Amino acid sequence: MKSLPYFCRGEVIRGFGRGSKELGIPTANFPDSVVDNLPADISTGIYYGWACVGNGDVYKMVMSIGWNPYYKNTKKSMETHVIHKFKEDFYGEILSVVVVGYIRSERSYPSLEDLIAAINSDIEEAKVQLELPEHSKLKDDNFFTSTTASSPVSPSSTVSTSQSIINGH
Q1: What residues does 65 pair with on adjacent strands?
Q2: Average pLDDT of 53-63?
Q3: pLDDT at position 100, please?
Q4: Local confidence band at 73 (pLDDT 50, 70, 90 cut-offs)
Q5: Which pTM does this prediction carry?
Q6: Whole-number Å distance between alpha carbons of 160 and 169
Q7: How far is Cα 87 from Cα 68, in angstroms, rounded to an integer?
Q8: Given a cut of 50, is residue 10 above it in pLDDT?
Q9: Which residues partner with 94 through β-bridges?
Q10: Nearest Cα residue to 122 out of 36, 60, 43, 32
Q11: Rounded Cα distance, 158 and 25, in Å
Q12: What does the alpha-carbon distance between residue 33 and residue 31 come to, in Å, rounded to a whole number?
């Protein structure tokens, strides 16, 4: 996937309400404007990378991009699980992510328990991959400390390259 690493940010919106409640794995959801601007070569599936809420610290993350076959969604989504325990929800905050690598394609599961086990396996894979030097260096990318990250951003998507933000920002 030539578009990786992929840099984007957007406002955290309410999703389907399943991450924390049903799965015990909270997710932060991007608005349609961010999802709709994904490059064509970023296919649906499970990815790993780095994430930052507002002006906070940068943490490892896993992200599901697609329709979540277990739930038979009809709307494509980008759901980010930041690998960190937050004290409270952060709806309305700006989430900045760098999608670094691909773990696997989307698939359905025979049970909720099997889905949870797969997600936990994805989290462990992300932790390992993000320790590799070529991936860990992106944690310190100036995308996370750019002036756009510290100023208000419209709920529409902002996509960037490593050094500059495009789409008018």
Answers
A1: 45, 78
A2: 96
A3: 97
A4: confident
A5: 0.84
A6: 9
A7: 27
A8: yes
A9: 11
A10: 60
A11: 26
A12: 5
**Spatial contact of 81 and 123, defined as CB atoms under 8 Å apart:** yes
Half-sphere exposure of residue 149, counting CA atoms within 13 Å on the CB side? 22
> Largest alpha-carbon pair distance within the chain?
45
**Catalytic-role residue among 11, 22, 79, 93:** 79
22 phi and psi, to 5 degrees?
-90, -35
* Nearest residue to 122 via CA among 79, 67, 87: 79
What is the average pLDDT value for the chain, to the nearest integer? 85
| Catalytic residue flag (residue 131) | no
Two structure tokens written together for 121: 């396996």
Question: Looking up tokens 């696997």, which residue turns up?
Answer: 104
More confident residue, 56 or 167: 56
pLDDT at 165 over 50: no
- Amino acid identity, residue 114? D
- Report residue 142 as tokens: 């100036």
Strands (E), the chain: 6-11, 28-29, 45-53, 58-66, 77-82, 94-104, 158-160
Interior angle at CA 22, CA 17 and CA 25, nearest 5: 85
For the chain, the 3-state helix, strand and coil shares in percent, each to the nearest 5, are 25, 30, 45
pLDDT at 147: 54
